[in-house]
Amino acid sequence: MQRVLVERAQAGDLDAFTQLVKAYAPRLYGIANLILHDSDRGQDAVQDALLMGWRDLRALRDPDAFEAWLRRLTVRACYGVARKERRRNRVELHVTPDPLLSSIPDTSAELVERDWLFDMLGRLAIDQRVVIVLHYYLDLSVPEVAEILDIPYGTAASRLHRGLEAMRTSMRVAPAAANGLAKEQSA
What we know:
The chain has 187 residues and is mainly alpha-helical. It has eight helices and no strands.
């Protein structure tokens, strides 16, 4: 089914391409959001990737490789968006609990942990973040990651190792810093 849609889209059928986009866009948004650490910039990257995909679709030799090709375009678009906006302001909002909602089970610890992990991922260099997202979020092997990024296997493995080590280091330091801050405020 996918092959037929890709071939129709390569022949210029916009409806076929639209069906393909509907099938793959959510996954591409997930990849871009994790890589860029920002949903708006992730949407921009996916939009750029899809535009490149439509423009260059006729150059795709193997219609069965469409999904991998789209992922590669998305990763490249993420690099482009990251280059455009190297610095971005961050606003943090602090929310106070509502006493009326006390009967609802508290899942805030899970959310805090997820956000903390997401923040640690966002602190990595984009090269390391991309490899970690592709390897752990898409469950791709390191050779597949290297192929998508068009880099040697050793480079992909090194980025994965260094990225994970940087996250481990940040995670060890972050709780200690938070405990130090709490002690200073109580004094």
